[in-house]
Write a structure and sequence with these properties.
Shape: globular
Radius of gyration: 18 Å
Number of strands: 7
Strand order of the largest sheet: 2-1-7-6-5-4-3
Number of helices: 3
Largest sheet: 7 strands, mixed
Helix content: 10-25%
Distance between the termini: 29 Å
Order of helices and strands: HEEEEHEEEH
């Protein structure tokens, strides 16, 4: 989901609570805060010596240990207010993919992308997913899309 699409979604549902599902049935705790918004530029070289660059907006979610047991989630209105203030200070790239940085004692810290969202009575639930790694130079490396990651093993002439 692009940053502009995420902001537009928030603007349409300001009266709801904002929840994040980071794994099936697993939600970021109601004690979460938006602690950082990162405008990231990735400048990369893949294993086939191809260069690429892109931008991402990364919103960091952090659960406050002093607010464990809190049941009221951050409202969409409040989250939108935070992101609007950030955008005025450091303009967000609206065409960039928005990701969420999150982790807890049961889930490793990761950058998660928006897989989908759902609207329930008084909730906007953002369904997150882990981005899988991939070989971007399959043609250069001679990797058949149907093959496993073993095709890019060290010493295979690829990667």
């Amino acid at each position: 989901m692009k940053t502009s699409e995420f902001l537009s979604l928030l603007k349409q549902h300001t009266d709801k609570a904002l929840l994040f599902e980071y794994s099936s049935g697993m939600y970021v705790g109601a004690n979460y805060h938006i602690t950082e918004v990162k405008n990231i530029t990735v400048d990369a070289v893949d294993c086939g010596a191809n260069t690429d660059s892109w931008k991402e907006t990364v919103v960091q979610l952090w659960e406050s240990p002093t607010e464990i047991g809190k049941t009221a989630y951050l409202t969409v209105y409040k989250a939108l207010s935070i992101l609007t203030k950030v955008d005025k200070m450091k303009s967000m790239e609206k065409d960039a993919e928005v990701k969420f940085e999150y982790g807890n004692a049961l889930f490793h810290t990761a950058h998660l992308f928006v897989n989908d969202y759902e609207i329930k009575e008084k909730q906007l639930i953002i369904n997150l997913a882990v981005t899988k790694t991939d070989c971007k130079a399959k043609d250069t490396c001679g990797v058949d899309v149907a093959e496993t990651a073993e095709a890019c093993a060290p010493g295979s002439g690829c990667c």
